[in-house]
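chain below, 282 aa
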Amino acid sequence: MSVDISKVLPTNFVLFKIILGDPKHSRLLIHFLNAAIKSESPITSVEILDSEPTPEYVNQKGSRLDIRARTQDNEIVNVEMQCGTEKHMVARSLFYWSKLFSGQLEVSEKYHELKKTVSITILDFRLFQDDKRYWRKGHLVDDETGERMTDLLEMQFIELNKMRQFDEKSPITFWIEFFRDPYSERVRALCDYVPEIQEAKEMFVKAKADPKVREWIYTREKNLRDYINDISCAKDEGKAEGIAEGIAEKARETALKMLSKGMNVEDIAEITGLSVAQIKAL
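prediction:
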């Protein structure tokens, strides 16, 4: 699957963390989380555990950025933006979720003190085959009854490009539309009656005008291009190696047939392209 860098980078990458990860504008993250988690006790405050973009993540070639937060009930939430196809995305998200979940306890603490941990992964590529669903929530459930075993685990996947129907009663669609294109007509209309989207849009415009942020965006563009190019080259090399191995295997099979018919090694080498040593090793 090809990745359109112009679409996924400035809009959905560096600025994603700047907008939702700013402690001074935490109500934006609260609005997004309440739209995604839909708890019976809405989130009223968050502590953002990592916020300021750093040279380390700007300079990384990888295409993953995340925001970690803790709610007023000590629930842990990880919001991740993933650009570029990731084959093992579910396993990867579960791995990061497990690190957050298990990292809650100190040696002297008890298991009953563990708090709910939610992983929300926003994807700019198609992960699941079903085109009708852009938003998935998963929990641990009983295979036979479907009964939920625990509320401590929740994983979500939001596939931006699959949303076809905008729902004015569903705030999660506000944010999906914003992540897809902050300059769209629909986002412009949302700004008139959703203060959080208006605030996010203003932050977006201001951040893009900041020379330091523009440099971050440029660096991320370059590094993500390199990252995707490296993957593409590796795949091409893998295909080439596979073709070469297939040709070599065919040559070995041909050499074995010739040997079984009593042909001499030198003639076989000339016909198959294998070395005399390779043929003798057969």
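The chain has eleven helices and six strands. Strands lie at 46-48, 64-71, 76-82, 117-123, 135-138, 153-159.
thats it, cya
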